[in-house]
Design a protein that fits this description.
The protein is mainly alpha-helical. It has one domain: Up-down Bundle (AhpD-like). Helix 2 packs antiparallel against helix 3, helix 2 runs parallel beside helix 4 and helix 3 packs parallel to helix 5.
Length: 94
């Protein structure tokens, strides 16, 4: 997967309105991850995983978000799901 760029994440946050509000930031990031998996956008998945990690998302919360993506899009997402779990585990090592 492409290396994550912090500047791109800041720009995306401004453009797409990911800011404090009525919905918890962690929930917004998990929703973004689910959508990214459904769309099968590798760079988007990487960005969301890094942001989820920064928001304190647990493995269990991650698994729930991924399960929703699998329900919505089906087995076509499995390759991206595997990559997401590998990247998540690599983030934990850092």
């Amino acid at each position: 997967m492409k290396e994550f760029n912090q500047n791109e994440a800041k720009r995306d946050s401004r453009w797409y309105g990911v800011r404090a509000g009525h919905t918890f930031q962690k929930d917004k990031e998990l929703t973004g991850l689910t959508c990214s998996l459904v769309l099968r956008c590798g760079d988007c998945i990487t960005c969301r995983l890094v942001r989820c990690r920064g928001k304190g998302v647990t493995r269990e919360e991650l698994e729930e978000a991924i399960t929703i993506a699998l329900i919505v899009r089906g087995s076509i997402t499995i390759t991206h799901v595997r990559r997401a779990f590998r990247f998540w585990d690599d983030l934990k090592k850092e």
